[in-house]
């Protein structure tokens, strides 16, 4: 392909990430509207309880990602990648339309679960396509380009759709998101080149990744670590209005700051993952802990809220390509599954963070309490990184011992023959 053709293909893939980022995160800025419309009786008696229950919509989408990513990836690794992307985009469009049109909280909850099913598989396949287009030595940057749509969505898409939802209704907002998926379908169909799937892939081979302890450790790092981010991001709207004391009209503005941080952090993370993966994990987790602590201590001020929301977004988004690259390293020949299940682990973190944040809010600890939950979740994530390093070191030691033993046997055999 020509450089122009490659850039257009990458742009189309990133547009899909933009649509996904919008559908995933827009609920966080519209939780009060969702709660008031879908849970009117609860909202009338206790807005806090209704908002916490509405957070289940975010958890439902995330659980859809967790279920769909490994299942679709394992079943479809042999399929042509462009055709699979188009099928996934149709599923996104239909699931988002259903989310906008269904009448009750329970049905919308189910629709959000269904809409989340293709999420991980899309990003996984798109990451593989982008990595092949970028060429050797640029895998991390290729992944970052695909993910850039997700982060830019938080600069443009989420604030714009949040503003639309606040003024025209959340259902209109989701219909616009569905239109974004339809446009992405057209773009992918027109400019993304055909790529064959993995002809040697089988479900058994792909699922073999789950027999490797390093895969489980990396997935756990993503789930627990991103739980810290989503515990904060899910409830950023009520933090702005109830803790900082600003008007709800400024929710899109704080989401822009978060999105800017995520966009910058994503590209830095792509560069870091092409440099060193494990040091990158320690760097970004340390940065995330600092940002969460700063937010917890200063969110009552306007400057503190906006600065540290930006830094939380940058730190968390920097982790994403690093974890993705690490997972593809340790998964060996199960690359399709590895590329997809990373997003399952991150959305498990989404579900975990949204749930735990709702628990502490409903318990009466206030809207800032999820920030402390997020900080606490970073600790086990760092411990898991350390454990992964220890396991890798032991594996190398055992490999060296086996190699030395093999050389000794060869030497004995050579002496006997001579």
List the helices and strands and how they pair.
Elements: H1 3-29, H2 31-38, H3 40-45, H4 47-76, H5 81-101, H6 105-116, H7 119-134, H8 139-168, H9 170-191, H10 203-207, H11 213-233, H12 236-243, H13 251-275, H14 277-298, H15 302-330, H16 335-362, H17 369-417
Helix pairs in contact: 1-4, 1-7, 1-8, 1-9, 2-4, 4-6, 4-7, 4-16, 5-6, 5-7, 5-9, 7-8, 7-16, 8-9, 8-13, 8-15, 11-15, 11-16, 11-17, 13-15, 14-15, 14-17, 15-16, 16-17
Strand residue content: under 5%
Number of helices: 17
**Computed Rg:** 22 Å
End-to-end separation in angstroms reads 57 Å
The total strand number stands at 0
Q: Could you name the ranges where pLDDT drops below 50 across 5 or more consecutive residues?
A: none
Shape: globular
> What does the largest sheet look like?
none
Structural class: mainly alpha
Share of helix among residues?
over 70%
Mean pLDDT: 82
H/E series, N to C? HHHHHHHHHHHHHHHHH
In short:
The chain is mainly α and 418 residues long.
Describe this structure in words.
The protein has 17 helices and no strands. It is mainly alpha-helical. α1 runs antiparallel to α9. It is globular and about 65 Å long. The model has no long low-confidence stretch (mean pLDDT about 80).
Which terms would index this structure?
418 residues, globular
